[in-house]
Amino acid sequence: MHPEERLGQATQERPDGCLLWMHASHSHLAGPVTAIAKELSHLRGEPVHALFTTPDATPLIPSVAEAAIHQLVPGETSGSLTRFFDHWQPDLGVMLGIPDRPNLIREAAARDILMYLATPERGSITDVRRLAYTPGDILARFQTAFAASTAEADVLVRHLEGAPLGIEVLGPLSDTTHALPCIDAECDALAAQLANRPIWLAAGITHDEVDQIEAAHRKAFSAAHRLMLILAPNDLEDAGRIAQALEGKGWSTALRSAAGKLDLDTQVLIADVPDEMGLWYRLAPTTFVGGTFDPSGPTSDPFDPAALGSAVLHGPEISATPARFERLAHANASLLVKNAAELGLAIRSLLAPDKAASLAQAGWATTTESAPVIERMVELMDMHL
Fold this sequence. Notes:
Rossmann fold; alpha/beta
């Protein structure tokens, strides 16, 4: 992030094609911008790019940063706003939370940019005092406002003082993710080959975590001798070395890249083919989030398995995406394990389908809470583009 962005001076090129712009008070709220862009792109059959602005320079979480441009929001001066909009020329805009930048909104409206208002969590605007410094005419410049509750809709109506604004009550536009894809036929074929074997997934495992994952698998395996571990390394180039190390410890190991039909004697499958995580999250009832035993390594995104119905386990190192881990924990949708021994015991416990299903259902509900808002918003955006 660069300070000149506050003056509206862009530090990246505008991508060609449709650009969706979202503004929020904090970077951890950025999840919906990529989910909306992907849904709109799918609906329209063309690329839709994402721009996210915030008042501070806190980085976006890695999975969102890969798909969205992050810039500091311009100041409220005429020059800063002119430079910002002249460069970016967004086709659509979404503001999350209290619309507390009136000049930004007025300039967007003056340029005929379709703007939508949404709330990131329930109760965001139920206190009228939070809207006290937002002129009523500002709200009327939005195409539609999506309220998280009828109470919030009532607050918006009172503050409008008769100004026109379509308001729909569909829930919050909270942090979310777009489910990773997979080839359905491949998923069905692998599920058949596994023949109902119990499996668990260690996703995005760093080099320094391999021994801990092996120890956890050994502990869980002692209680379930058909249990198979799918180990997805963070660095796919480590796959061969990991396979050799595990073979040296007595495990029957296979590389996904080299395997044809799975051998029923395989105890550890190394998932070393790129872009297949959507497949493994669908197949594994339980996932350990890699990087969370390693204070120096990259951390995988816990929303990815949760969105596909896999129960989430993680270690204590969650600083890369704390908001997402905390949200899952608050919803009783994840389980913290402090070391390999605790992980092994947790895997054994979650072999009971009802226990894994409880965590998985809570995780799925948390990561898909915004689905009705996104679906309706994308429908309106496509209609008005």
